[in-house]
From TrEMBL:
This is Glutathione-dependent peroxiredoxin. It catalyses: a hydroperoxide + 2 glutathione = an alcohol + glutathione disulfide + H2O. It comes from Xylophilus rhododendri. CDD domains: PRX5_like. The keyword Oxidoreductase applies. The active site is at 55 (cysteine sulfenic acid (-soh) intermediate).
Length: 170
């Protein structure tokens, strides 16, 4: 399992864009993890799945609501990761009104979650292999803080905990 002080593994996540932008076409766009993290401080949180109850009611809204406070604490971007495809993450972004506050990134085949050693086996519940629920503060690709939830819990990966850690690291 990834730990504080480790460099995040390289790879590609996918992001759905509804409008053309700086280097982004409409539709799914590849996000090179190493390039996207270079020179930045990023608060990353991962959830077992888009549109799931805790994720939609608590996890994402907390980060959206506190986005300005994260910026003030020196966080350049907030990323939400889930083992869903980019189209689902795009629809969830619309539903959650993430706008430019939280980047909703797809780890469609759980490749990144597996590389981190942070997977959750939900095959018995018909959901396959998913990401564990966690949050981490990453500076220039290196993990500065890591908060991994116990299965079924939402206690340490919330926006308030991560915001406190971001302020302490600033």
């Amino acid at each position: 399992m990834i730990k504080v002080g480790d460099k995040l593994p390289g790879g590609t996540l996918m992001e759905y864009s509804e409008v053309e932008g700086n280097g982004c076409s409409i539709g799914p766009n590849a996000v090179d993890i190493e390039k996207a993290l270079a020179g930045k401080t990023v608060a990353i949180f991962a959830v077992p799945g888009a549109f799931t109850p805790t994720c939609s009611a608590k996890h994402v809204p907390g980060y959206v609501e506190k986005a300005a406070e994260f910026k003030a604490a020196g966080v350049d971007e907030i990323w939400c990761l889930a083992v869903n495809d980019a189209f689902v993450m795009g629809a969830w972004a619309r539903d959650q009104k993430t706008g430019d506050k939280v980047r909703m990134l797809a780890d469609g085949s759980a490749v990144f979650a597996q590389a981190l050693g942070l997977t959750l086996d939900l095959q018995a519940r018909g959901m396959g292999v998913r990401s564990a629920r966690y949050s981490m503060l990453v500076k220039d690709g290196v993990v500065k803080t890591l908060n991994v939830e116990a299965a079924g819990k939402f206690e340490v990966s919330d926006a308030d905990t991560m915001l406190g850690q971001a302020k302490a690291a600033a």
